[in-house]
């Protein structure tokens, strides 16, 4: 079990680095580095890779260099901070495709012989999801029951042993005024400095 959260991987899952998610990720990185943390920052939109796991788990699909670095950074990290928008209730296809490609059996998890259960191979890491959305977060929680949050937290990260997983939702962003965005940026900076 890891004792500190000094090595932080920041993952921008929005294809556009100039998005609000991109701004939040940059501020988090800056704050974490100022606090003396060792940080790796991966912008998935700048990596060349096929997001489709072509053969499922039946045939090995070699990682492109950017995905190999992404996987190695997950293994290296004590804590992973994800920044992405909620589109159609869940994460962008870019982020889902990257996770499909790197969180593989035998690496991120391992099914047990003659059992319905599995071993979580990424234990000892924590995560924090910073999501933006046009839907008010309370409505996303109450009306939709947070499908994207549940998918990322429970059926992806915790499935592989990454926990605790915290979630921070910012929204609605569509008509957010500058003072609101500045408050959100302050929140992100605070988490970057104390993680």
Name given to the CATH homologous superfamily: Flavodoxin domain
Number of domains: 1
N-to-C series of helices and strands: EHEHEHEEEHHEH
Structural class: alpha/beta
Tell me what the CATH architecture is: 3-Layer(aba) Sandwich
Strand order of the main beta sheet, please?
Answer: 2-1-3-6-7
How many angstroms does the end-to-end distance come to? 17 Å
Kindly state the percentage of residues in helix: 25-40%
Shape: globular
Low-pLDDT regions = none
CATH fold assignment: Rossmann fold
Task: Evaluate the radius of gyration.
Answer: 17 Å
Number of helices: 6
The count of DSSP E runs of length 2 or more, i.e. the number of strands, is 7
Q: What do the pLDDT scores average to?
A: 96
Task: Give the biggest sheet.
Answer: 5 strands, parallel
Tell me which oligomeric state these chains represent. Answer: single chain
How much β-strand is present in the residues? 15-25%
- CATH class division: Alpha Beta
Task: Fill in the keyword field for this structure.
single chain, alpha/beta, Rossmann fold, Flavodoxin_fold, oxidoreductase, NAD(P)H_dehydrogenase_qn, Flavoprotein-like_sf, EC 1.-.-.-
What does this structure look like?
The chain has 195 residues and is an alpha/beta fold. It has one domain (7-194): Rossmann fold. The chain has helices at 20-34, 65-76, 93-102, 137-142, 147-157, 178-194; strands spanning 7-12, 38-43, 79-85, 109-111, 118-120, 126-132, 165-170. The strands form 2 sheets. A 5-stranded parallel beta sheet has the order 2-1-3-6-7, with helices on both faces. A two-stranded antiparallel ribbon has the order 4-5. It starts with 6 loop residues before the first strand and ends with a helix. The relative contact order is 0.19. The mean pLDDT is 96.
């Amino acid at each position: 079990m890891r004792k500190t959260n000094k090595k932080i991987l920041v993952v921008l899952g929005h294809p556009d680095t100039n998005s609000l998610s991109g701004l939040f990720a940059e501020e988090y990185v800056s704050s974490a580095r100022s606090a003396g943390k060792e940080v790796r920052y991966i912008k998935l939109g700048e990596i060349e890779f096929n997001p489709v796991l072509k053969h499922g788990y039946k045939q090995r699909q070699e990682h492109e260099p950017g995905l190999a670095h992404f996987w190695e950074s997950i293994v290296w990290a004590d804590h992973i901070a994800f920044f992405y928008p909620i589109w159609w209730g869940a994460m962008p296809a870019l982020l889902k495709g990257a996770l499909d490609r790197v969180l593989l059996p035998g690496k991120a998890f391992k099914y047990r012989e003659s059992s319905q259960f599995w071993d979580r191979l990424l234990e000892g890491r924590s995560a924090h999801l910073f999501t933006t959305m046009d839907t008010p977060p309370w409505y996303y929680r109450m009306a939709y029951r947070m499908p994207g949050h549940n998918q990322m937290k429970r059926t992806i990260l915790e499935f592989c042993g990454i926990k605790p997983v915290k979630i921070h939702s910012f929204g609605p962003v569509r008509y957010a005024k500058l003072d609101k965005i500045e408050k959100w940026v302050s929140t992100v900076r605070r988490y970057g400095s104390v993680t």
